[in-house]
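Help!! Second protein's tokens look totally different from the first
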Amino acid sequence: MRWVVLVHQDNPLPGLNLQQLDQIFSATRRCGENTPINRWGELGLQGSWQQRALQRFGRNSASGTYGYFKLRALCGGDFMARVNELPGSASVVQAVAGSLNGIGYASIGFRASGVRLLPLAETGDRFIEPSETNVRNGSYPLARYLYIYINKAPNQPLEPLTAAFLDRVLSAQGQDLVNHDGYLPLPPDTLRKTRTLLGLD
């Protein structure tokens, strides 16, 4: 799963690091810098962008995306009140696409238009694109696996409905559906090992 930072498609910002994300979205700024970032000029943009105020969008507190972003990008700090909380990643994308000054964060399990996905860096300005390769090799800083949890008695086979569901999810067709929705399918070796571990082969 990739979490991305989005800006309007016309925004020329080259990228951000995690400390800057904390300065943009956090009220408590626990990642090391005390100064908030409120204008695009504070991120180096010139001309008509320099005095424009950032318009922040994010997920609501019931979302796993909210929790992960808070932990990873805000060093566990609190979101500022000026972040417009929205119910889903698609809503964040739509809001950022509709606001020239918009910046937001969302999960990448969707297809996006009207926005640009910003490259990110842990620190400094060696920005890394949120590509499949960079997520898989661990260089993109906002990525993690999504898990399916099942209730299975030890030393017992899977219940038939659970087995059928997992067989579908872990099939070539199931992984194609995952990919179609914008998520990354499991690597082939992980897929084989998981199917074997669950007794699906």
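Here's the second one for comparison:
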Amino acid sequence: MTIDGGHMAATERISVVVTREEKARLAKRAKAANLTMGEFVRRAAEAYQPDVDEKALESLIQRVKKTADEAARAMEEGLAVVAESQKQIEKMESAHAARKVA
């Protein structure tokens, strides 16, 4: 076991098959982070937490559904108020028209 800068030196290899485009994107991102491609991929793999992402996404989906349901109910209530107002306006217009004729 060797130590390099306070970390164990990597001694095992993992082959990962990627497309030419994926490799180019990884190389660009690694260069931007001032890391070797191996170190960049190693850090990305260590940071990956699918359960956390999935839980956060599920929570977000539930909040969106709840908000959409609340918005739909509010719209239905608003439309009911508009319909009732329209009825009142029509009654008032009819009464006004009847007075003009009389």
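Reply: Different proteins will give different token patterns, so don't panic. The chain has a mean pLDDT of 89.
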